[in-house]
Design brief:
Order of helices and strands: HHHEHEEEEHEEEHHH
Number of helices: 8
Structural class: alpha+beta
Radius of gyration: 22 Å
Strand order of the largest sheet: 1-4-3
Length: 306
Protein backbone atom coordinates (compact mmCIF):
# COMPACT_ATOMS: atom_id res chain seq x y z
CA UNK A 1 0.00 0.00 0.00
CA UNK A 2 1.32 3.44 -0.89
CA UNK A 3 -0.42 5.13 2.04
CA UNK A 4 0.43 4.97 5.73
CA UNK A 5 -2.07 3.16 7.92
CA UNK A 6 0.13 3.62 10.98
CA UNK A 7 -0.53 7.39 11.01
CA UNK A 8 -2.79 7.26 14.04
CA UNK A 9 -1.20 4.52 16.13
CA UNK A 10 -0.82 6.75 19.20
CA UNK A 11 -4.13 6.33 21.01
CA UNK A 12 -3.61 9.37 23.26
CA UNK A 13 -3.45 11.78 20.31
CA UNK A 14 -5.51 9.89 17.74
CA UNK A 15 -8.63 12.07 17.84
CA UNK A 16 -6.78 15.35 17.31
CA UNK A 17 -4.25 13.83 14.90
CA UNK A 18 -7.02 12.61 12.60
CA UNK A 19 -8.59 16.06 12.46
CA UNK A 20 -5.27 17.81 11.92
CA UNK A 21 -4.11 15.38 9.23
CA UNK A 22 -7.23 15.81 7.09
CA UNK A 23 -7.19 19.59 7.42
CA UNK A 24 -3.47 19.89 6.69
CA UNK A 25 -3.73 17.58 3.68
CA UNK A 26 -6.53 19.67 2.19
CA UNK A 27 -4.56 22.83 2.93
CA UNK A 28 -1.51 21.32 1.25
CA UNK A 29 -3.58 20.60 -1.86
CA UNK A 30 -4.84 24.18 -1.98
CA UNK A 31 -1.30 25.56 -1.63
CA UNK A 32 0.02 23.66 -4.63
CA UNK A 33 0.66 26.07 -7.49
CA UNK A 34 1.48 23.58 -10.24
CA UNK A 35 -1.77 22.68 -12.01
CA UNK A 36 -0.80 19.10 -12.88
CA UNK A 37 0.19 18.18 -9.32
CA UNK A 38 -2.83 19.89 -7.83
CA UNK A 39 -5.25 18.15 -10.18
CA UNK A 40 -3.58 14.76 -9.68
CA UNK A 41 -3.82 14.94 -5.89
CA UNK A 42 -7.46 15.98 -6.15
CA UNK A 43 -8.13 13.10 -8.56
CA UNK A 44 -6.65 10.67 -6.02
CA UNK A 45 -9.36 11.70 -3.57
CA UNK A 46 -12.06 11.41 -6.25
CA UNK A 47 -10.88 7.86 -7.05
CA UNK A 48 -11.28 6.87 -3.41
CA UNK A 49 -14.64 8.64 -3.12
CA UNK A 50 -15.95 6.70 -6.14
CA UNK A 51 -15.33 3.47 -4.20
CA UNK A 52 -16.78 4.81 -0.93
CA UNK A 53 -19.58 7.05 -2.17
CA UNK A 54 -21.61 6.64 1.03
CA UNK A 55 -18.72 7.87 3.21
CA UNK A 56 -18.18 11.47 4.24
CA UNK A 57 -15.43 13.37 2.46
CA UNK A 58 -13.43 13.35 5.70
CA UNK A 59 -13.58 9.55 5.93
CA UNK A 60 -12.69 9.06 2.27
CA UNK A 61 -9.79 11.48 2.77
CA UNK A 62 -8.63 9.47 5.78
CA UNK A 63 -8.77 6.28 3.71
CA UNK A 64 -6.82 8.03 0.93
CA UNK A 65 -4.10 9.01 3.41
CA UNK A 66 -3.78 5.59 4.99
CA UNK A 67 -4.69 3.10 2.25
CA UNK A 68 -5.43 4.76 -1.13
CA UNK A 69 -5.79 1.39 -2.92
CA UNK A 70 -8.60 0.30 -0.57
CA UNK A 71 -11.75 -0.96 -2.33
CA UNK A 72 -13.96 -2.24 0.52
CA UNK A 73 -13.54 -1.66 4.23
CA UNK A 74 -15.31 -3.11 7.26
CA UNK A 75 -14.70 -3.53 10.97
CA UNK A 76 -12.80 -6.50 12.42
CA UNK A 77 -15.91 -8.32 13.63
CA UNK A 78 -17.98 -7.31 10.62
CA UNK A 79 -15.50 -9.10 8.35
CA UNK A 80 -15.92 -12.20 10.49
CA UNK A 81 -19.65 -12.20 11.09
CA UNK A 82 -21.00 -10.75 7.85
CA UNK A 83 -18.46 -11.90 5.27
CA UNK A 84 -16.80 -14.94 6.88
CA UNK A 85 -13.38 -13.40 6.38
CA UNK A 86 -10.59 -12.78 8.90
CA UNK A 87 -8.07 -9.98 9.23
CA UNK A 88 -4.56 -11.24 8.55
CA UNK A 89 -2.17 -11.26 11.45
CA UNK A 90 -0.03 -8.13 11.72
CA UNK A 91 -2.26 -5.87 9.60
CA UNK A 92 -2.52 -2.22 10.71
CA UNK A 93 -5.98 -0.71 11.07
CA UNK A 94 -7.37 2.11 8.96
CA UNK A 95 -8.89 4.76 11.20
CA UNK A 96 -12.08 6.59 10.22
CA UNK A 97 -14.82 8.53 12.01
CA UNK A 98 -18.02 6.90 13.28
CA UNK A 99 -21.00 8.96 14.49
CA UNK A 100 -22.03 9.04 18.15
CA UNK A 101 -25.74 9.31 18.80
CA UNK A 102 -27.41 10.94 21.78
CA UNK A 103 -30.14 13.31 22.86
CA UNK A 104 -30.31 16.70 21.11
CA UNK A 105 -32.51 19.66 21.88
CA UNK A 106 -35.59 19.74 19.62
CA UNK A 107 -35.49 23.53 19.77
CA UNK A 108 -31.86 24.46 19.00
CA UNK A 109 -30.29 21.13 17.99
CA UNK A 110 -27.54 21.26 20.61
CA UNK A 111 -26.48 17.96 22.25
CA UNK A 112 -28.06 17.62 25.67
CA UNK A 113 -24.73 17.22 27.47
CA UNK A 114 -23.69 20.78 26.56
CA UNK A 115 -27.09 22.42 26.34
CA UNK A 116 -26.47 24.48 29.47
CA UNK A 117 -23.76 26.38 27.56
CA UNK A 118 -26.35 27.85 25.17
CA UNK A 119 -28.94 30.59 25.51
CA UNK A 120 -31.73 28.21 24.58
CA UNK A 121 -34.51 28.24 27.18
CA UNK A 122 -36.01 24.87 26.30
CA UNK A 123 -34.71 23.33 29.53
CA UNK A 124 -36.52 25.96 31.57
CA UNK A 125 -39.94 25.19 30.12
CA UNK A 126 -42.39 23.33 32.33
CA UNK A 127 -43.31 19.71 31.70
CA UNK A 128 -40.22 19.04 29.58
CA UNK A 129 -39.77 15.29 29.47
CA UNK A 130 -36.54 13.59 28.45
CA UNK A 131 -38.51 11.59 25.88
CA UNK A 132 -39.26 14.87 24.10
CA UNK A 133 -35.60 15.26 23.20
CA UNK A 134 -34.69 14.15 19.68
CA UNK A 135 -32.13 11.45 18.95
CA UNK A 136 -29.30 12.61 16.71
CA UNK A 137 -25.58 12.76 16.05
CA UNK A 138 -23.77 14.47 18.92
CA UNK A 139 -20.18 13.82 17.86
CA UNK A 140 -17.77 11.41 16.24
CA UNK A 141 -15.26 8.88 17.50
CA UNK A 142 -12.32 7.13 15.82
CA UNK A 143 -13.03 3.51 14.83
CA UNK A 144 -10.83 1.00 13.08
CA UNK A 145 -11.62 -0.76 9.81
CA UNK A 146 -9.64 -2.99 7.45
CA UNK A 147 -9.56 -3.22 3.68
CA UNK A 148 -10.50 -6.50 1.99
CA UNK A 149 -6.86 -6.85 0.88
CA UNK A 150 -5.95 -7.15 4.56
CA UNK A 151 -8.30 -10.11 5.03
CA UNK A 152 -8.65 -13.70 3.88
CA UNK A 153 -11.51 -16.18 3.75
CA UNK A 154 -14.68 -16.61 1.72
CA UNK A 155 -14.85 -14.85 -1.64
CA UNK A 156 -17.27 -11.95 -1.81
CA UNK A 157 -20.04 -12.07 -4.40
CA UNK A 158 -19.36 -9.89 -7.44
CA UNK A 159 -22.05 -7.24 -7.61
CA UNK A 160 -23.06 -5.75 -10.94
CA UNK A 161 -23.21 -2.00 -10.32
CA UNK A 162 -25.91 -1.57 -12.90
CA UNK A 163 -24.15 -0.69 -16.10
CA UNK A 164 -20.55 -1.85 -16.18
CA UNK A 165 -19.97 -3.08 -19.70
CA UNK A 166 -23.41 -1.81 -20.77
CA UNK A 167 -23.10 1.95 -21.08
CA UNK A 168 -26.28 2.23 -23.12
CA UNK A 169 -28.15 0.96 -20.07
CA UNK A 170 -26.52 3.62 -17.93
CA UNK A 171 -27.64 6.42 -20.26
CA UNK A 172 -31.24 5.22 -20.01
CA UNK A 173 -30.99 5.04 -16.23
CA UNK A 174 -29.58 8.56 -15.92
CA UNK A 175 -32.49 9.87 -18.00
CA UNK A 176 -34.96 7.98 -15.82
CA UNK A 177 -33.30 9.30 -12.64
CA UNK A 178 -33.62 12.85 -13.97
CA UNK A 179 -37.29 12.21 -14.72
CA UNK A 180 -37.86 10.91 -11.17
CA UNK A 181 -36.34 14.13 -9.84
CA UNK A 182 -38.56 16.26 -12.07
CA UNK A 183 -35.69 17.35 -14.31
CA UNK A 184 -36.42 17.56 -18.03
CA UNK A 185 -33.72 16.12 -20.33
CA UNK A 186 -33.36 16.89 -24.02
CA UNK A 187 -30.71 15.25 -26.22
CA UNK A 188 -30.22 17.27 -29.41
CA UNK A 189 -28.88 15.91 -32.69
CA UNK A 190 -25.34 17.11 -33.44
CA UNK A 191 -26.31 18.90 -36.67
CA UNK A 192 -28.90 20.90 -34.73
CA UNK A 193 -26.58 21.84 -31.86
CA UNK A 194 -25.67 25.54 -31.75
CA UNK A 195 -23.81 25.95 -28.46
CA UNK A 196 -20.09 26.07 -27.75
CA UNK A 197 -20.18 23.50 -24.93
CA UNK A 198 -21.57 19.95 -25.14
CA UNK A 199 -24.28 20.53 -22.56
CA UNK A 200 -26.30 23.15 -20.74
CA UNK A 201 -28.47 23.29 -17.62
CA UNK A 202 -31.00 25.95 -16.71
CA UNK A 203 -33.38 25.77 -13.79
CA UNK A 204 -34.58 22.13 -14.01
CA UNK A 205 -33.91 21.74 -17.72
CA UNK A 206 -30.88 19.84 -19.07
CA UNK A 207 -29.87 19.88 -22.73
CA UNK A 208 -26.95 17.91 -24.17
CA UNK A 209 -25.53 17.31 -27.63
CA UNK A 210 -25.97 13.79 -28.96
CA UNK A 211 -22.57 12.13 -29.44
CA UNK A 212 -21.34 8.58 -28.86
CA UNK A 213 -23.14 6.96 -25.94
CA UNK A 214 -20.30 7.15 -23.34
CA UNK A 215 -19.67 10.85 -24.07
CA UNK A 216 -23.37 11.71 -24.06
CA UNK A 217 -23.76 9.87 -20.75
CA UNK A 218 -20.87 11.63 -19.03
CA UNK A 219 -22.03 15.06 -20.25
CA UNK A 220 -25.58 14.31 -19.09
CA UNK A 221 -24.32 13.33 -15.61
CA UNK A 222 -22.28 16.56 -15.48
CA UNK A 223 -25.29 18.73 -16.34
CA UNK A 224 -27.55 16.76 -13.99
CA UNK A 225 -24.97 17.40 -11.26
CA UNK A 226 -25.27 21.14 -11.81
CA UNK A 227 -29.01 20.96 -11.17
CA UNK A 228 -28.81 18.70 -8.11
CA UNK A 229 -25.97 20.77 -6.64
CA UNK A 230 -28.14 23.89 -6.83
CA UNK A 231 -26.02 25.69 -9.44
CA UNK A 232 -28.79 26.54 -11.87
CA UNK A 233 -31.51 29.15 -11.94
CA UNK A 234 -33.78 30.81 -14.49
CA UNK A 235 -30.75 32.79 -15.65
CA UNK A 236 -28.42 29.81 -16.00
CA UNK A 237 -25.08 29.68 -14.20
CA UNK A 238 -23.17 32.05 -11.96
CA UNK A 239 -20.12 33.91 -13.25
CA UNK A 240 -16.50 34.43 -12.22
CA UNK A 241 -15.10 32.46 -9.29
CA UNK A 242 -18.53 31.00 -8.45
CA UNK A 243 -18.77 29.60 -11.98
CA UNK A 244 -15.36 27.95 -11.66
CA UNK A 245 -16.35 26.48 -8.29
CA UNK A 246 -19.53 25.09 -9.80
CA UNK A 247 -17.64 23.53 -12.72
CA UNK A 248 -15.20 21.84 -10.32
CA UNK A 249 -18.10 20.48 -8.28
CA UNK A 250 -20.13 19.25 -11.28
CA UNK A 251 -17.20 17.62 -13.08
CA UNK A 252 -16.02 16.01 -9.83
CA UNK A 253 -19.48 14.57 -9.22
CA UNK A 254 -19.60 13.30 -12.82
CA UNK A 255 -16.15 11.74 -12.40
CA UNK A 256 -17.13 9.88 -9.21
CA UNK A 257 -20.37 8.61 -10.75
CA UNK A 258 -18.73 7.72 -14.07
CA UNK A 259 -15.91 5.81 -12.38
CA UNK A 260 -18.43 3.96 -10.25
CA UNK A 261 -20.32 2.71 -13.30
CA UNK A 262 -17.45 1.97 -15.67
CA UNK A 263 -17.35 5.09 -17.85
CA UNK A 264 -13.94 6.17 -19.13
CA UNK A 265 -13.43 9.44 -17.25
CA UNK A 266 -9.74 9.87 -18.14
CA UNK A 267 -10.45 13.11 -20.04
CA UNK A 268 -12.08 14.83 -17.07
CA UNK A 269 -10.73 18.26 -16.28
CA UNK A 270 -11.24 19.72 -12.81
CA UNK A 271 -10.35 23.36 -13.47
CA UNK A 272 -8.45 23.48 -10.19
CA UNK A 273 -5.89 26.00 -11.43
CA UNK A 274 -8.72 28.53 -11.85
CA UNK A 275 -10.58 27.68 -8.65
CA UNK A 276 -9.15 29.66 -5.76
CA UNK A 277 -10.71 29.08 -2.36
CA UNK A 278 -9.82 28.99 1.31
CA UNK A 279 -9.99 25.67 3.12
CA UNK A 280 -13.44 26.30 4.58
CA UNK A 281 -14.95 27.03 1.16
CA UNK A 282 -13.15 24.09 -0.41
CA UNK A 283 -14.36 21.71 2.29
CA UNK A 284 -17.89 22.95 1.62
CA UNK A 285 -17.34 21.96 -2.01
CA UNK A 286 -16.03 18.55 -0.96
CA UNK A 287 -19.18 17.98 1.09
CA UNK A 288 -21.41 18.98 -1.82
CA UNK A 289 -19.46 16.71 -4.21
CA UNK A 290 -19.81 13.83 -1.75
CA UNK A 291 -23.52 14.37 -1.09
CA UNK A 292 -24.63 14.81 -4.70
CA UNK A 293 -22.51 11.99 -6.14
CA UNK A 294 -23.91 9.67 -3.46
CA UNK A 295 -27.45 10.81 -4.29
CA UNK A 296 -26.94 10.02 -7.99
CA UNK A 297 -25.19 6.68 -7.42
CA UNK A 298 -27.79 5.44 -4.96
CA UNK A 299 -30.56 6.61 -7.27
CA UNK A 300 -29.09 4.76 -10.26
CA UNK A 301 -28.49 1.57 -8.28
CA UNK A 302 -32.16 1.11 -7.48
CA UNK A 303 -33.45 1.73 -11.00
CA UNK A 304 -34.19 -1.56 -12.71
CA UNK A 305 -32.76 -2.29 -16.14
CA UNK A 306 -34.80 -0.77 -18.92
Amino acid sequence: MSGDNTLFSDSDDRYSDMKIEVESSIEELLQLTEEAKRSEKFKEWLDVQSKFHNYSYRNSWLIKLQCPEATKVAGYRQWQEKFDRHVKEGESAIWIWAPLEGKICPECGTPKYKHDLTNCEYFEEEDVDEDDWDQGIVGFKPVLVFDISQTEGEELPVLDTSAQGEINGLLKKVKRLAEEKDINVEIVEEDEWNRGSDGFAKDREVTVKKQDIPTTTSVLIHELSHVLAGHTSDNGFSSGIDRMKEEVEAESIAYIVGERFGLDMSNSSFYLASYKADREAFEASLKKITDVSSEIIEGLEVIEDA
